[in-house]
Design the sequence.
């Protein structure tokens, strides 16, 4: 099989998309954001609950879309629970680098990089990068007050 | 069934036609290209590209302006293109053809110039749920800005549109019926003649979006008796940036201008302006001149074939693909209207259309995935998006085989 396809649809991604982690609404969320990709109709809603120390005490998402967008949202939610807002933004920077094909994403710990690396295959599919980034942009817009997020 | 491309008729040989399209011999990702995204845009044959190049290198200048040799030549070609389009649609008069940027601009022209001045709050526009956004949004403008109400006509579960349903939606305040000749998602062909006759009986004009219909059906606007018929060049094997609006002469005469500028005036003074007669009134500014020549060449190219035989070939591809999908019990086809055109939309269980299209792409199969600019129709069938294969005169059964093989592969990866 085409190696780039195998890389894109590797087992971890398919598992996240079939069995999304932290899927569902979060009651008592302090921040929410909604993302929509008008090109393909993918939707994602991110719920965050921040504690007094600007830490993501809880995170959930709801969404409908392709395997890449849903896996990305699931993986993101899984990784951000318990992190500080600052760390979340740093992770996002590293993630965006990875899906755009940067070989040296900045500011990622070895462990974070290894977990995010499963999404790096999308860099070979420029038309699909926006699918991978939708959840992250939505998370950021939630932190910034919840305006509509676009994945560009 | 055989995988060999089938030669349908002595008068149309798809393989010979295919040889006119250089791009179709392309390989993508090391595989032969199977271009099945024709409803989005068709490829252009050599005669079209040659006509544009020859014109640009030997006859080009601005039209209707200069008195010099080239300007006269170019004007002649531009007006000849108008006559070619007239013949293609069998309009009664050449001045019933207005060149536009495409189908979208043609429909917007009707919205701004014909309907807007006739709309009072509460007036109604009847349209079907299978319309492309280009035949929805211009009417939404009139809803938002002037208080028009949109009356939606549903399609049946098989995707067919009934003239009865359209007629039932027409009320005393209906100002226009706007309907696709052929759906760009379902392939459904509307009973346009019947719709026009029923609407006219109630004094309501009819606009047909012919962007798909003109490619696959043999159009006779006089026989259909529609008031407006919009087409676009690039789906008709011609260039982008040009299309046309057919409108009955008396309709055009009653319409105010849309864009203002050069070429659309009779006289301009400091205090006053008078407008040219149609079609010039609606063609402000320098038009797409080279494209008009390409458009005419495309129409001539298509018209030189036995259109009935072309249609039979496209139906054969559709039927062959439909049979292929029937064997996949995890694929649901959306739109099975009798007599539909060669557009096949489907959903595959457990696979999002974009994932599916990405995998098909790597097999060399180009399809469209998404809402196809028809979100009300997606809502109607309860889907977010579909995958769409659309066939043109140059497609073959082997390309359908590549599609089916790609689907099996996608199932293996994602299923």
Sequence:
């Amino acid at each position: 099989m085409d190696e780039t396809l195998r890389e894109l649809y590797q087992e971890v991604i398919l598992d996240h998309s079939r069995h999304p982690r932290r899927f569902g609404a979060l009651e008592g969320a302090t921040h929410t954001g909604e993302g929509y990709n008008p090109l393909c109709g993918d939707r994602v809603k991110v719920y965050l609950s921040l504690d007094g120390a600007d830490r993501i005490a809880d995170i959930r998402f709801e969404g409908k879309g392709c395997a890449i967008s849903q896996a990305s949202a699931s993986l993101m939610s899984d990784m951000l629970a318990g992190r500080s807002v600052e760390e979340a933004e740093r992770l996002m920077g590293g993630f965006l680098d990875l899906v755009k094909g940067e070989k040296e994403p900045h500011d990622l710990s070895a462990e974070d990089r290894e977990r995010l690396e499963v999404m790096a295959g999308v860099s070979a599919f420029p038309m699909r990068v926006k699918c991978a980034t939708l959840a992250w942009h939505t998370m950021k817009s939630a932190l910034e007050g919840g305006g509509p997020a676009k994945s560009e | 069934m055989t995988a060999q491309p089938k030669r349908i008729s002595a008068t149309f040989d798809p393989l010979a036609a295919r040889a006119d399209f250089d791009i179709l011999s392309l390989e993508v990702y090391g595989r032969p290209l199977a271009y099945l995204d024709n409803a989005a845009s068709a490829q252009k044959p050599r005669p079209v590209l040659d006509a544009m190049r020859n014109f640009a290198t030997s006859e080009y200048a601005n039209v209707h302006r200069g008195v010099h040799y080239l300007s006269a030549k170019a004007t002649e070609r531009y007006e000849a293109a108008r006559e070619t389009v007239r013949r293609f649609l069998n309009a009664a008069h050449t001045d019933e053809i207005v060149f536009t940027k495409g189908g979208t601009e043609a429909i917007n022209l009707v919205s701004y110039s014909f309907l807007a001045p006739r709309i009072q709050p509460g007036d109604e526009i009847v349209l079907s749920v299978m319309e492309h956004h280009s035949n929805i949004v211009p009417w939404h403008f009139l809803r938002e800005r002037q208080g028009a109400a949109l009356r939606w006509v549903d399609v049946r579960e098989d995707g067919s549109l009934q003239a009865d349903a359209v007629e039932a939606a027409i009320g005393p305040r209906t100002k226009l019926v706007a309907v696709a000749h052929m759906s760009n998602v379902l392939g459904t062909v509307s009973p346009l003649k019947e719709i026009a006759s029923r609407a006219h009986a109630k004094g309501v004009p009819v606009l047909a979006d012919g962007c798909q219909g003109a490619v696959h059906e043999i159009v006779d606007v006089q026989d259909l008796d529609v008031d407006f018929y919009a087409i676009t060049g690039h789906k008709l094997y011609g260039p982008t940036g040009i299309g046309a609006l057919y409108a009955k002469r008396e309709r055009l005469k009653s319409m105010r201008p849309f864009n203002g500028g050069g070429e659309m005036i009779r006289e301009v003074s400091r205090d006053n302006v008078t407008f040219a007669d149609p079609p010039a009134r609606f063609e402000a500014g320098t038009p797409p001149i080279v494209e008009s020549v390409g458009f005419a060449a495309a129409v001539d190219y298509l018209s030189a074939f036995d259109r009935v035989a072309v249609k039979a070939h496209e139906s054969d591809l559709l039927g062959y693909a439909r049979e292929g999908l029937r064997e996949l019990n995890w694929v649901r086809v959306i739109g099975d209207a009798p007599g539909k055109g060669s557009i096949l939309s489907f959903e595959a269980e457990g696979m999002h259309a974009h994932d599916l299209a990405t995998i098909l792409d790597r097999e060399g199969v180009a399809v469209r995935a998404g809402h196809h600019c028809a979100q009300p129709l997606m809502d109607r069938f309860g889907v977010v998006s579909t995958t769409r294969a659309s066939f043109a005169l140059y497609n073959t059964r082997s390309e359908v085989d590549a599609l089916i093989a790609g689907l099996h592969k996608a199932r293996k990866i994602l299923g």
About this structure: Residues 5-9 of chain B have pLDDT under 50 and may be disordered.
